């Protein structure tokens, strides 16, 4: 039996967005474990552990989807209190992005590929194991032009996890 692979589909920021989010992260007065900038992402669908034999089928599913470019403004900071996660999100998700995320999970469901069925919310993790929320802060508005999506494997290593991109699909022109 082959080893499992912990997979997820995600939006990965470009260097300019990553730099702006990193500046915001450093400005926050938070006690917790900061997410590493090279790992910033927004999960579209978390697939969890999948058999290696399924990866080609998962890649084919992604290749069959049409991702249209869009723009989102990350303008709110929130938290998942139970898990101690501080995140950067968007007060408005573009309809085209919400429709894409729905088509992605629908395709996974049709192919009987397991995924986390919790309701989806656009968010980028800034901190984990947060013990102290940030004090009142200035308004945030980081614009991100979404130009594609990726399939990523999360691999456990000595000091946490590493992310390895398995595939990337650019937005349709």
Structural features, described:
Strand 9 (148-157) and strand 10 form a beta hairpin. It is globular, with a radius of gyration of 16 Å. The mean pLDDT is 93. It is of the alpha+beta class. The chain has a single domain, classed as Cyclic Phosphodiesterase, Chain: A. The chain is built from 3 helices and 10 strands, in the order βαββαβββαββββ. The strands form 3 sheets. A 4-stranded antiparallel sheet has the order 3-1-9-10. It has a 4-stranded antiparallel sheet with strand order 2-7-6-5, with no helix packed on it.
CATH architecture: Alpha-Beta Complex
CATH fold-level label: Cyclic Phosphodiesterase, Chain: A
CATH superfamily: Cyclic phosphodiesterase
Q: For the largest sheet, list the strands in their spatial order.
A: 3-1-9-10
| Secondary-structure element order, N to C | EHEEHEEEHEEEE
How many E-type strands? Answer: 10
Q: Average pLDDT value?
A: 93
Alpha-carbon Rg, integer:
16 Å
Strand content: 35-45%
Class, according to the CATH hierarchy?
Answer: Alpha Beta
> In angstroms, what separates the terminal alpha carbons?
41 Å
Label this structure with key terms.
173 residues, alpha+beta, Cyclic Phosphodiesterase, Chain: A, four-stranded antiparallel beta sheet, 3 helices, 22% helix
Short description:
By secondary structure, the chain is an alpha+beta fold.
């Amino acid at each position: 039996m082959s080893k499992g692979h912990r997979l997820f589909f995600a939006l990965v920021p470009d260097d300019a967005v990553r730099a702006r989010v990193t500046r915001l992260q450093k400005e926050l007065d938070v006690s917790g474990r900061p997410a590493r900038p090279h790992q910033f992402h927004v999960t579209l669908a978390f697939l969890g552990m999948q058999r290696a034999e399924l990866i080609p089928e998962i890649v084919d599913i992604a290749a069959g989807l049409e991702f249209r470019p869009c723009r989102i403004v990350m303008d709110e900071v929130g938290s998942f209190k139970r898990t101690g996660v501080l995140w950067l999100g968007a007060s408005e998700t573009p309809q085209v992005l919400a429709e894409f995320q729905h088509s992605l999970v629908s395709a996974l469901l049709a192919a009987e590929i397991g995924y986390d069925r919790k309701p989806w919310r656009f968010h980028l993790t800034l901190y984990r194991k947060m013990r102290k929320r940030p004090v009142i802060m200035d308004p945030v508005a980081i614009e991100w032009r979404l130009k594609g999506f990726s399939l990523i494997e999360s691999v456990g290593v000595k000091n946490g996890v590493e992310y390895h991109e398995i595939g990337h699909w650019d937005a349709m022109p």
